[in-house]
Write a structure and sequence with these properties.
2 domains; alpha+beta; two-stranded antiparallel sheet; four-stranded antiparallel beta sheet; elongated; about 170 residues; binds zinc ion
């Protein structure tokens, strides 16, 4: 029997023997780079049949759709950009996001499909941009909504200059 404990196979790190056997092979409990725990047959790890908890396959499927002009391309880019603003220190807008402590909730950060599901259930359309309702809050389901670019700019303007109810002095 091969002791795979502690070894890495692509995105998976082997944690321990699950105690289960499958076709004479040990079933190992593994942790994936995305944070998911899964069980994988040792032989499949060694032969490179299982490279992740399944997230890699999903991502590849998304990339394939991307190449084929899936209309959700834009949503995928939104997701990538949102994470870059919060986690990539060399991003030109990092100081307004990650640099101010704004983060992306772990579920969204690790899994595009969870973000996509939320987006589609909450009125995403290709002409809309993601908005944080509380400007000091994080990218997470209860602090985000989809606004048109102009609504979003208007909101930013109002945050800087006060509420829309304010009457301007006529000069
Ligand atoms: Zn994974």
């Amino acid at each position: 029997m091969n002791d795979l404990k502690g070894k890495r196979f692509s995105r998976l790190i082997v944690l321990k023997d699950s105690g289960k056997r499958c076709g004479g092979h040990v079933v190992w409990i593994c942790i994936c780079d995305c944070g998911n725990i899964c069980e994988v047959i040792g032989n499949n790890l060694i032969r490179g049949r299982n490279k992740s908890c399944g997230c890699l396959k999903k991502e590849n499927a998304i990339k394939k759709n991307w190449r084929h002009g899936d209309r959700r391309i834009r949503l995928y880019r939104t997701w990538v950009n949102m994470k870059s603003r919060c986690f990539r220190k060399n991003h030109h807008k990092y100081k307004y996001y990650g640099g101010r402590g704004i983060t992306v909730c772990p579920a969204w950060r690790s899994n595009y499909l969870i973000f996509k599901e939320w987006a589609l259930a909450n009125g995403y359309a290709d002409h809309l941009t993601i908005d944080r309702i509380d400007n000091d809050g994080n990218y997470e389901p209860n602090n985000c909504q989809w606004l048109t670019r102009s609504e979003n700019s208007k909101k930013q303007w109002e945050e800087k200059h006060g509420s829309k109810d304010k009457n301007f002095k006529i000069v």
